[in-house]
C-alpha cells in the first residue's frame, strides 16, 4: 500500500517530464529559469526506479512528425482538423465543424497515464461558444459522429471537456469535465450534456485562459483518475477518481471536438500535445493470464465517496433510478435530523437532571 502511494505521487509529478525537451519557441522569457527549476527534480526522478516511460508511439508531440503522413503514420486526422507547427486545431471557431486526431497504433499497456496539453479559446461570451473536446480510448477510430465530433455508442472510455450547457435546466457550472465508459449499448445524450451516462465529473475553468492548460488521465488496476492543471501552478488538481473500471488493451487513443450549430462566436479547440506514459505496475499471475484484449468495457459502480456527493444524479443508469436516489437521500437526511434532535433532547435532559442533583 505504501509502495503504491509512493508511485502514485511520483507519477503525477511527471507533467514536467516532456516539457524541457519540447523543441521550438518556448513559452516566454521565464522559460530558461523554469527549465532549470524543472530539470532538478526530473533528473532525480528518471533514475529513481524508472517507474514509467513516455511512449513515443502513443504520444503526439511537437513538431508532429509522422502525423497524417502516409508512410509511417503515428497519428491520423479527419474532418476540420488542421496541423500547424505549434498546435493541432481540431476545430476552428466556426459553426458546425468537427474534427479528430487518432493514434495509429492500438495501445497494449495495462497501466497508463495520458497528459494532454490543450487550449480552448474563442471570442464568444458566456453561453455563446461550444461544444468542447472529447478524449478517447476506444475500439474504433476516425469515425465522425455527434459526440464532440466522434461516433456515438462507442466501445471504451471517453473524457468530455464540455464548454456548453445544452441542458438549460442544469445547475452545473460549465466548463464541465466528465467521464463515460461504454460497451456500445449507451448513447450520449447531447441535450442533457451526457448526464445520464456520466460516471463522475467536475467543473473546470479551462476556457480562454492566458496560460497553458493540462489534463491528465490515469488508468491503473481498475482505477480511473482525471486531474487538471489549469491555474499555471504546475500542480495537479483532482477532478475524478473512481474505481471498478474495466477497459481492454488494444484500443486507440484519440481526441475530437465539435462546435455545434449555434450561430454566434464559437471556439477553437487545440491540442498541443498528448503524452502517454507507461506505469510500471505489478499484476498477479491470474491477472496476467487473462486475455486483456477480450475485456468488455464496464464499470463495477463504486464511486469514491469524495466525488459528486452533492450531485446524486451523477449516476450512469437512467432516469427513474436517479429520482429514487434523490428521494432516498432526502429520507436519509430527514432521518439524520430526527436522530440528531432526539439525541440532543436526551443529552439536554440528562444535563438538566445532573444540574438538579448537584445544586
Ligand atoms: C453493456 O452494458 C449494459 C449496461 O451498461 C449492460 O446491460 C449490458 O449487459 C452490457 N453488454 C455486454 C455485452 O456486456
Ligand atoms: Ca454540452
TrEMBL record:
Protein name: Vesicular integral-membrane protein VIP36 isoform X1
TM segment ranges: 326-348
PROSITE patterns, A to Z: L_LECTIN_LIKE
Claim: Transmembrane is one of the keywords in the record: yes
Pfam family, one: Lectin_leg-like
Main location: endoplasmic reticulum
Subcellular location: Endoplasmic reticulum membrane; Golgi apparatus membrane
Signal peptide range: 1-44
InterPro entries xrefs: ConA-like_dom_sf, Intracellular_Lectin-GPT, Lectin_leg, VIP36_lectin
Record domain L-type lectin-like: where: 52-279
Membrane topology label: Single-pass type I membrane protein; Single-pass membrane protein
GO molecular function, one term: metal ion binding
Keywords: Disulfide bond, Glycoprotein, Golgi apparatus, Lectin, Membrane, Metal-binding, Signal, Transmembrane, Transmembrane helix
SUPFAM superfamilies in alphabetical order: Concanavalin A-like lectins/glucanases
GO cellular component, one term: endoplasmic reticulum-Golgi intermediate compartment
Amino acid at each position: 500500500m505504501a509502495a503504491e502511494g509512493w508511485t502514485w505521487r511520483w507519477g503525477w509529478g511527471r507533467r514536467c517530464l516532456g516539457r524541457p525537451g519540447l523543441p521550438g519557441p518556448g513559452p516566454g522569457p521565464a522559460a530558461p529559469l523554469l527549465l532549470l527549476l524543472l530539470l532538478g527534480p526530473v533528473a532525480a526522478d528518471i533514475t529513481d526506479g524508472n517507474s514509467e516511460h513516455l511512449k513515443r508511439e502513443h504520444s503526439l508531440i511537437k513538431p508532429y512528425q509522422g502525423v497524417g503522413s502516409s508512410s509511417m503514420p503515428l497519428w491520423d486526422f479527419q474532418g476540420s482538423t488542421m496541423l500547424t507547427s505549434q498546435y493541432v486545431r481540431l476545430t476552428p471557431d466556426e459553426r458546425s465543424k468537427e474534427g479528430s486526431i487518432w493514434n495509429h497504433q492500438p495501445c497494449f499497456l495495462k497501466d497508463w497515464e495520458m497528459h494532454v496539453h490543450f487550449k480552448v479559446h474563442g471570442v464568444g461570451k458566456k453561453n455563446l461558444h461550444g461544444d468542447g473536446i472529447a478524449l478517447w480510448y476506444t475500439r474504433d477510430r476516425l469515425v465522425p459522429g455527434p459526440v464532440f465530433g466522434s461516433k456515438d455508442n462507442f466501445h471504451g472510455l471517453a473524457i468530455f471537456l464540455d464548454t456548453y450547457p445544452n441542458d438549460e435546466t442544469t445547475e452545473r457550472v460549465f466548463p464541465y469535465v466528465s467521464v463515460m465508459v461504454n460497451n456500445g449499448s449507451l448513447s450520449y445524450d447531447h441535450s442533457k450534456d451526457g448526464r445520464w451516462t456520466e460516471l463522475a465529473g467536475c467543473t473546470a475553468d479551462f476556457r480562454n485562459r492566458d496560460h497553458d492548460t493540462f489534463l491528465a488521465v490515469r488508468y491503473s488496476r481498475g482505477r480511473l483518475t482525471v486531474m487538471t492543471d489549469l491555474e499555471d501552478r504546475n500542480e495537479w488538481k483532482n477532478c475524478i477518481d473512481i474505481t471498478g473500471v474495466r477497459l481492454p488493451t488494444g484500443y486507440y487513443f484519440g481526441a475530437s471536438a465539435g462546435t455545434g450549430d449555434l450561430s454566434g462566436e464559437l471556439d477553437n479547440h487545440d491540442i498541443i500535445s498528448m503524452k502517454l506514459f507507461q506505469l510500471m505496475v505489478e499484476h498477479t499471475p491470474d491477472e496476467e493470464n487473462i486475455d486483456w484484449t477480450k475485456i468488455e468495457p464496464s464499470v463495477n459502480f463504486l464511486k469514491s465517496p469524495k466525488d459528486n456527493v452533492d450531485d446524486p444524479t451523477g449516476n450512469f443508469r437512467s432516469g427513474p433510478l436517479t429520482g429514487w436516489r434523490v428521494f432516498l437521500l432526502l429520507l436519509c437526511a430527514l432521518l439524520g435530523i430526527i436522530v440528531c434532535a432526539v439525541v440532543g433532547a436526551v443529552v439536554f435532559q440528562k444535563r438538566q437532571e445532573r444540574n438538579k442533583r448537584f445544586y
